[in-house]
Amino acid sequence: MPLTLTALDRTALDAVIIDLDGTLIDTMGDFVAAINRMIAALTPTGQSPFLMDAPAVNTMVGKGSEHLIRSVMAHLQRCGVTDFTDYEAAFASYQQHYAVVNGRHAEVYPGVLQGLQQMQAAGLRLLCLTNKPQGFARELLALKGLDRFFSQVFGGDSFERKKPDPLPLFKSCEFLGSAPARTLMVGDSSNDAQAARAAGCPVVLVTYGYNHGQPVKAIDADGFADSLAELRWKALA
Q: What's the angle, vertex CA 142, arms to CA 140 and CA 145, rounded to 5?
């Protein structure tokens, strides 16, 4: 039965698992800045770096830092840049530069604060689950003042596998002490939806995120929201 976003049944849910990049915070500027710093640092002296823009990076984010850097390297090679063949060096450089820019070019999406306040007021237990490394995720949430809403933050390095594998959702539900069927997943991409479906969690996707550059409403989900503030909750009896 489709979820009614204007009156979500609080009695049917105990907890909410929420994605970070593209759902809570627009971090595309951080990704682009870190990638271009990495490219500049690894470009041979005397050559102009082949810098990337947001539309190109947008199609690559969401599956973890390892996938992102491999995608960037493949993109550069397709564009005729042949200097980037050492994945380990590129990954280490990216991590170093991301640590510097984390949060500097990122903004909390409109409606996020209100949406989190509404969930908190409804008595729901909240957990942030992202494919971003856990350390970066925790730092970013603290910088933006959102860490106070979450009982835990799990990252792409918290478990053996990342979303869209259901393992991170099973582990998150275990931590929350809630059954998957009573735990709503809120995200912005097919990663979130596929993981939720495989875990048995209901799922709502926001329409403003990244989703690898593909239309989000083509994804199998229980509902779509233009803002987290749209998620309103029936009061408990």
A: 110
Assessment of whether the complete model's pTM goes beyond 0.85: yes
Q: Is the pLDDT of residue 5 over 80?
A: no
CA torsion angle 140 106 70 191 (round to 10): 80
**Of residues 109, 96, 148, the one with CA closest to residue 27:** 109
Residue 144 CA from chain centroid, whole number? 15
| pLDDT digits 0-9 by tens, 214-224 | 899 999 999 99
Q: What is the DSSP string of 112-168?
A: HHHHHHHHHHTT-EEEEE-SS-HHHHHHHHHHTT-GGG-SEEE-TTSSSS-TTSSHH
Phi-psi region of 205 (alpha: psi -120 to 50; beta: other; left: phi over 0): beta
Residue 21 DSSP label: B
Lookup result for tokens 């510097």: 100
Mean pLDDT calculated for residue range 35-61: 90
19 is catalytic: yes
3-state helix, strand, coil in the chain (%, to 5): 45, 15, 40
Q: Per the structure block, which two tokens stand in for 117?
A: 């306040």
Q: What is the DSSP string of 34-62?
A: HHHHHHHHHSPTTSPP----HHHHHTTTT
What is the amino acid identity at position 16?
V
The number of C-alpha atoms within 13 Å of 211 and in the hemisphere containing its C-beta is 19
Quick one: pLDDT at residue 62? 79
Catalytic choice (19, 26, 188, 192): 19
